[in-house]
Structure formats: C-alpha cells, structure tokens
Amino acid sequence: MKIVVLDGYTENPGDLSWEGLEALGSLTVYDRTPYAQGTDEILRRAEGAEILITNKTPLNAAVISGLAGSLRYIGVLATGYNVVDTAAAREHGIPVCNIPTYGTTAVAQFTLALLLELCHHAGAHSQRVRDGAWTRCGDFCFWDYPLIELAGKTMGLIGYGRIGKAVARLAKAFGMRVLYYDTFAGPDGTAEKVSLDELYAQSDVISLHCPLFPENTGMIHADAIGKMKTGVMILNTARGPLINEEDLAAALRSGKVAGAAVDVLSAEPPRPDNPLLSAPNCLVTPHIAWAPKESRQRLMDIAVDNVRAFLEGHPQNVVNP
Fold it and tell me: Whose CA, among 50, 57, 167, 274, lies 20 to 30 Å from 119?
C-alpha cells in the first residue's frame, strides 16, 4: 500500500511521529509540494499512490483524474476540505475523509486569547515596560490602551457547531451573554439563537465559527458592519474569505469597529498589501489557532484511524458519500 503525504510540515514539523501511517503501508512524506505553477509536481509525487493525504495542496479534478488509475483514498489533514474537488473524487469512487473534531478545544481557547488581547493588550504593555515607559512615567501603573471588562457584554457567534459551542461556554464563564446565528444548530441552553441582523445589532463582540461557502464569502462587509454597534470587536478563527478585508480595515480606521483579531486571511501567507496588516487595533496571527502539539497529535491519531477504517472496509469521516 503506497501512502503519500503531500504537505506534512505544518502538521508535523518534527515534534510528532508518522509511525501510525508507516504501519499501514509504504509511506513517503513531503514537507511541502509546490503547486503555484501548475499540477505537474503534484502528479509526479503522487504517481502510483493508493492513499493520498493533503493539508493545503489542492487536488482538483484534473489531478484526481490523472491519479484515478491507482488512487483509492484521499485524506485531508484538516477539518476544511475545500482544497479537494470532492465531486470529481466521488465520480471516480474515491472517498475523501477529513478530521472533524481534533481542534475544538485549541481553537476555542485561542479565540478567547485573541479577545483578551484586544481587551488588555498584554503583549503591547509588556513591551512598553521593557522599553522603559513604566520606569519613566513615575506612577505605580500606566496603560496605553483602553482596558475592557467582558462581564455583562454580549458575545455573538456566527456558526454554532463544536467550536462555536466551546467558545460559548468560555464566554459564559467570563460572565458574557451569548447569542448565536446558525441555520442548522438548535438551542442548547448556553446561548440564545437569533437572526443575523439581531446578532449584529446586539453584540459587543462578534466571532466567526462557520464553514466557508460561496453564499457567505465576504459576509462581513460594509453593509453588515453598518448594522453593528459602534465599538464592536470582530474575531475570525474560521476562514479568511468570510471577511471583506478592505471594508473591515476601513471600519477600523473610522472607529466603527474598535478592534479586530484574525487568525486567518483571504490569502495565506498574506500579500504585503493586505489592508488588515496596516489597519489600527487589528491583531493578525499566522493561522495557529489549531496548532498546539496536543491538537496536532489528535489530528495525527484521527488521520491514522481514518486510513485504517478505510482499509478495513468501513471508511469514516467521509465528506463525499
């Protein structure tokens, strides 16, 4: 059984082991597979593979068709699977399996870390102390930014799946009222389901936890922001294209949005002219909410379980049945 991992570095930069997959076949792991200039290198590296695993290397219809003679299974080292043409895989009888649950705790924790940083700017204040500002000020304390208490404020969650629910529980622990908008999820006693316009109007903090679809691409745009409270804070640990970045940057500059924190961008790594990189009071982190070692180990374990289940004839976490 030939197993090829096209881009294993972000999942395992050296602190985990591939031994689980090695036990299931002949394994080749590439740290990264270039694709910007076309698909030739993907096809070369994946030639003859029966099991093909990708994280962000795209597998379009042409690639899948070119590998269909040998390819039996595609695994995605992530929850999102938009890098794979799942319909093309289905046409060739190839199941595509993702990792749906590994990062819930990590992403929820990181979401609150971003929010707390917007509220307290702990990193910036620490740097100011190191730069001597506290020593020079003469007072027993000082601050360069408004400090914000969360208790009594309203958190609005767009998307109420596993991660949204985990964020809701953390927000409640801080004394926040929690609203959510989701077209499928029902109430669970933690948060109140509202319309999207109600969420925009009532929330002090809006946090995105929904999948990316064509219909919600750019959903946080000028018109939507106009429906929000002045001084709202916006968080995104979901998918970068959910936000119109030009519109958010403009709202940050005008003060309509008091602060934003995003772990994802429309293009990753970002272009130098991405407007959020120069927007005021905007935290941008490099897509790391999912990446604690504990979370990546769970991802590895589930990826191995997915392949083993397929080989045993009962594939699991199939996204293109």
Answer: 274
pTM: 0.92
Residue 88 confidence (pLDDT) = 98
- Domain count within the chain: 2
pLDDT confidence of residue 170: 98
Q: Which domain holds residue 264?
A: 104-284
Residue 191 contacts residue 179 (beta carbons within 8 Å): yes
What is the CATH classification number for the domain harbouring 90? 3.40.50.720
Annotated catalytic residues are 239, 268, 287
CA 129, CA 146: separation in Å to the nearest integer? 17
Q: What is the largest CA-CA distance in the chain?
A: 74
pLDDT given for residue 37 in this prediction: 86
CA distances from 122 to 18, 113, 116, 117, 231 (A): 37, 11, 8, 6, 20
Residue with tokens 């999912």: 290
> Are both 179 and 276 inside the same structural domain?
yes
* pLDDT value at residue 181: 98
Tell me what pLDDT residue 80 has: 87
Q: Sign of torsion, CA 60 297 108 252?
A: negative
- Tokens for 9, please give them: 């570095």
Half-sphere exposure at residue 256, Cβ-oriented, CA atoms within 13 angstroms: 16
